[in-house]
């Protein structure tokens, strides 16, 4: 006989367990992507500098990552730092974010290893400061042998830049293999040259702070993802909110452009009548 203790993964708190026990473990999304938004508004409402919101958001990352790993999500991708952030934010804020990233990686590697999480990155990483790249490489190597969830941080990331880089990569590969006349372009080929070629496409994308846009995030990969928007600002987001998003995801029927079961049988039933 299956008990609630058997069904609920270890490590979830009481509220998380209450939500999880209503989920179907067989229908969990394999890959969840999150647009972490609202740090600035969180800080402004408290009459604090923007950097205070970024600092508070680290606890949200920790809670969300640990909960996702505990319920055996295969992949979690966090939109941490966009290419537009890099170009348009004040230099002082960008510098703080880079320092915060380095401190996060140093502090969280033990927790990632305890939860069997492997760390990866996507984006134009070569444009980041050299010392930050070095810390990133260290953290990736320190978690490389883990076999559980893949946590991917999107850093200096732009979906349009990713597509440009993918097309350049395809042309370069063709030039080294018979010339441009042998270039074959289809969906599979494009996917094989994206930053995320080692990951399945996301099933669910979560956006915090109530904004209704994708903000140049994984535009190719999110073609058929379910979108869940919560008004919760990122520094207030926790594993419980992630589970609530998964609960909403499981209420939906994913059709990939086809008909749902009811609609598929409607013509035959009409003809029979």
What class, by secondary structure content? alpha/beta
The average pLDDT score comes to: 91
What is the radius of gyration? 21 Å
Q: N-to-C SSE series?
A: HHEHHEHHEHEHHEEHH
User: What's the count of strands?
Assistant: 6
CATH architecture of the domain at 26-156 and 201-252: 3-Layer(aba) Sandwich
Q: Any idea of the CATH topology of the domain at 26-156 and 201-252?
A: Undecaprenyl pyrophosphate synthetase
Describe this structure in a few short sentences.
Helices cover about 45% and strands about 10% of the residues.
Structure commentary:
By secondary structure, this protein is of the alpha/beta class. It has a domain at 26-156 and 201-252: Undecaprenyl pyrophosphate synthetase. Helix content is 47%, strand content 12%. It has 11 helices and 6 strands. A 6-stranded parallel β-sheet has the order 3-4-2-1-5-6, sandwiched between helices. Helix 7 (130-143) links the parallel strand 3 (118-122) and strand 4 (150-157). Helix 4 (50-70) packs parallel to helix 6 (91-114) and helix 4 packs across helix 10 (239-249). The longest helix has 24 residues, at 91-114. It is globular. The model is unreliable at 1-5 (pLDDT under 50).
